[in-house]
Design goal:
The chain is of the alpha+beta class and 294 residues long. Helices cover 21% and strands 28% of the residues.
Length: 294
């Protein structure tokens, strides 16, 4: 049962770590593990990873630190080319397994959707009422705004696809958020129009990475490309990396690089997600940083 979002938490909590990677041919579960390890300071209550292999999405999550939740055997079982990771520092909902992320929902079309969220929404009650009206409030024990958001996105995605559903849903979401989410094949990332929460885009030799901080790029050997812009939605799949505006950036967050928005920028490997000043990053030497050992 979803908890009453009108009841405030005892104290404000604003940090979580999110990570996403699309990289065919790479061990994406281990890359996500390393990324979350570098983001561990952002949340210590729970950790989780979802992996898509083109046919299904598998989620593994639990309470505890990243190194406590995952071991070699678990990571070896998570095979695929796209992954979403999350380490939790609760904003809404108690510290339970059900509230650990990534959250997961199945669309009416039968595809899976996993979502990792960093931030705090201010219109959760409104979104909850919308979910109740649609009959999609699941009795899964989750009591977070993230679960409501995932449910609404999965419901709309059955008819419109995830990207279009996100473009229509996110403008109705109020508050601070960064999202990484995926289905079986595609990685998505979004940032709120005010740019309150950090989210960066990185380039691997054979893929792309999004993360809360550049420390997570460094540890997986990804080159920093740029920040995900306020109000931006990114989609990464086999056709390349594309970007769209889910909502125009607020005047306070706007800059010379965010002043012009199009409904859709065609995906093109290494181009659409890379501004002209940063296009050399895709071919730059990979960063190096020591990784944790088992």
């Amino acid at each position: 049962m979803v908890a009453d979002p009108s009841q405030p938490e005892q104290e404000p909590r604003e940090e979580c770590g999110v990570f996403g990677v699309w990289a065919p041919g790479e061990d994406v579960s281990k890359l996500t593990y390393y990324g979350l390890y570098a983001l561990q300071h952002r949340g210590q209550e729970a950790a989780g990873i979802s992996v898509g292999d083109g046919a299904q999405v598998v989620v593994f999550k639990d309470l505890g630190l990243v190194s406590q939740v995952f071991d070699e055997q678990v990571l070896q079982s998570l095979k695929g080319h796209v992954a979403v990771g999350h380490c939790r520092y609760s904003t809404t909902g108690s510290t339970t397994w059900e509230n650990a992320q990534p959250t997961f929902r199945t669309t009416a079309a039968g595809s899976g959707l996993s979502l990792g969220h960093n931030g705090n929404l201010v219109n959760t009650a409104e979104l909850l009422e919308k979910a109740k009206a649609l009959g999609i409030v699941e009795r899964n024990g989750a009591t977070t705004d993230s679960d409501i958001l995932c449910g609404l996105l999965a419901h709309a995605a059955a008819d419109k696809g995830i990207e279009q559903a996100a473009l229509e849903l996110l403008p109705t979401v109020k508050g601070a958020y960064c999202l990484t989410f995926s289905d079986e094949s595609t990685l998505y990332a979004a940032r709120d129009p005010h740019g309150v929460r950090p989210l960066v885009l990185g380039r691997l030799e054979r893929g792309w990475v999004v993360a809360s901080e550049t420390a997570a790029l460094d540890i997986v050997g990804a080159s920093f490309v740029r920040e995900v812009e306020p109000g931006e939605l990114i989609a990464i799949d086999a056709t390349g990396c594309g970007r769209a505006a889910s909502r125009p950036p607020s005047p306070r967050a706007a800059s010379s690089s965010t002043s012009t928005w199009r409904d859709r920028t065609p995906r093109s490997p290494g181009v659409a997600c890379t501004p002209p000043a940063s296009r050399s990053a895709a071919g730059s030497p990979r960063n190096t940083r020591s990784r944790p050992t088992w």
